[in-house]
Specification:
With 69 residues, the protein is of the alpha+beta class. The protein has three helices and three strands. Helix content is 39%, strand content 17%.
Length: 69
């Protein structure tokens, strides 16, 4: 089988994925249900795709500096 960089997934256990994404488990389950981030089951563990968290963060709207005042 060929080793293709496009097929490599950066997976983390659920708790570590939440820490990486800087959100709690409730928000993680919500994002998974909305298909905003990807998760996989391996045995009894849920693994979160870290690249999908990066994509989610990149899709968030930018806050304008005037809105912060």
């Amino acid at each position: 089988m060929a080793d293709n960089d496009n097929n490599k997934r950066r997976l983390a256990e659920f708790k570590d994925g939440c820490r990486y994404g800087k959100f709690g488990k409730t928000k993680a389950y919500e994002l998974i249900a909305q298909e905003r981030i990807r998760a996989y089951k391996m045995g009894g563990k849920t693994l979160i795709d870290l690249d999908s968290i990066d994509e989610y963060h990149a899709s968030l709207p930018r806050v304008e500096s005037r809105a912060m005042l």
